[in-house]
């Protein structure tokens, strides 16, 4: 039995509607503490493992606060040294928060995976690196947090039923 809906090959991108309630929920989650989960424990609890051989689906950047402000109707507290990004692929959205710590020279990467606007629990997230990097699973709110990262460019791979969503490298500096 599948926990995630399959991604139809021909489904067009969804139009995004903004509103105060949508923005409040998003901002509340991004301010909350997502936790890092051991992927083997999460996969076992959910009864499945990530299929990294599923067809790849490149996501498209919807916005990045490093380049411009948030779209009209979206309100979020963006602290100095941090940025928000949102990627879309068909009915999926990936919302990321990147924060830099000047003291440690490390970067925090936290995010949320949504399907049709709702949190997607149990998706497997990993850094797209040759050494297979850090791996975690989304929690009940679709949230995840990766271990602190050093300067560099990092892509993400997110395994959902029927596909692997591929987030292009994000420069952390």
Describe this structure in words.
With 173 residues, this protein is mainly beta. The protein has one domain: Immunoglobulin-like. The protein has two helices and eleven strands; from the N terminus they run H-H-E-E-E-E-E-E-E-E-E-E-E. Strands 2, 3, 4, 5, 6 and 9 form a six-stranded antiparallel beta sheet that branches. Strands 1-11-10-7-8 form a five-stranded mixed beta sheet. A hairpin with a 4-residue loop joins strand 4 and strand 5. The longest helix has 12 residues, at 20-31. The protein is globular and about 40 Å long. Mean pLDDT is 75; it is low at 8-47.
The count of DSSP E runs of length 2 or more, i.e. the number of strands, is 11
Q: How many individual helices?
A: 2
Instruction: Count structural domains.
Output: 1
Low-confidence stretches: 8-47
User: Strand count, sense and closure of the main sheet?
Assistant: 6 strands, antiparallel
Note the beta-strand portion.
35-45%
Helix and strand composition category: mainly beta
Tell me the distance between the termini.
Answer: 42 Å
CATH topology assignment: Immunoglobulin-like
Radius of gyration: 15 Å
What would you say the CATH architecture is? Sandwich
